[in-house]
């Protein structure tokens, strides 16, 4: 049994090799829990850890209520965020905890199939899952059928409707969903998609119950969560934290720059937050008061020697390349936004005009995509204009900011790092 009220929970028993099934069962001895799992999930207050933060029990109940045809449980371990390594870390520590949660959820909704999805470009995670699924299927042939799927990695491939689209007919394109919640289907069967970390939390709640789960965290954000910390850190790291821990404590645990300029929270479709707010607790109810959220559990730390507009421009340029190009405002609007940011940061290229266009374009693009990819980019750009106001001001007055020629970038964008960027001509 995991000791009550202490960390780690999700990473309990972790070493440099994934726990085998018998090691996992030893580390997580089940307690006798007679209440229905759905009731426990509801009482636990667990919300999805993939980014949207939707209540897990409500999502499961919606699919459970769908009648007819066989249903599917999908585990989303695609980890489309380039700054996130938490799914990979979790699968490298204990893939069975994720699979426990998937099996619990399959039993709640009445699914006969569990599809576990991990990007084929992530061979370590693919191998951990292959081994874990093999161990489980050798142990028992009863229960839902567990299958591993390996779609190609792309930012939008991990969007849940794109994932279901891929499982249904091999295309990684997000589906148009005018109303939320929207029931996704494979064939005629309703599908429940949950992120890998969400499933691992369900695995804990299924074993130890809601009351135990609420022993950590806040009343509105119970439990613990994994956070990927990158940027101004000695090395990118994933740490498990109690929800409600001050941001400053998380940065200190990751050995991050203790006096940064800002942090990007939530991922590349998230928002910048000035370092003035580092004492805010890491949970959505507190972060919401300063206009940000935990999102996909990513924190990118940006030091004082960086230009926030350049950091943002690099991310937007990469996000523009990741558009599935189904919708005009996204396919044409995002590259245009990246170009505006580039011009804003270049004293010789009409920064005033670029700023005006940026503001107008954000209004035109917002809410016009089939998925939320462009809205995430707009959120990022708007937060950059606010948080890096001083940099914007310098650029608008024809001066490069003090960090303009720094070669160090904090938001990692691998494909762009290989290109020769000529934004400072
Ligand atoms: S909004 Fe962009 S990423 Fe989303 S479906 Fe449309 S083109 Fe694709």
CATH fold-type name of the largest domain: Rossmann fold
Bound compounds, each kind once, are: iron/sulfur cluster
Order of helices and strands: HHHEHHEHEHEEHEEHEEHEHHHHHH
CATH class of the largest domain: Alpha Beta
* Fraction of helical residues: 40-55%
Instruction: Give the overall shape, derived from the CA principal axes.
Output: globular
Distance between the termini: 60 Å
Layout of strands and helices, then pairs:
Blueprint: H1 21-27, H2 37-44, H3 56-64, E1 71-77, H4 86-93, H5 95-109, E2 111-118, H6 123-139, E3 145-149, H7 160-169, E4 185-186, E5 189-195, H8 196-213, E6 224-231, E7 237-242, H9 247-253, E8 262-265, E9 271-274, H10 284-287, E10 298-302, H11 308-321, H12 328-344, H13 351-365, H14 373-387, H15 389-396, H16 414-417
Parallel strand pairs: 1-2, 1-5, 2-3, 6-10
Antiparallel strand pairs: 4-5, 6-7, 8-9, 8-10
Helix pairs in contact: 2-3, 2-8, 4-6, 5-8, 11-12, 11-14, 12-13, 13-14
The structure holds iron/sulfur cluster.
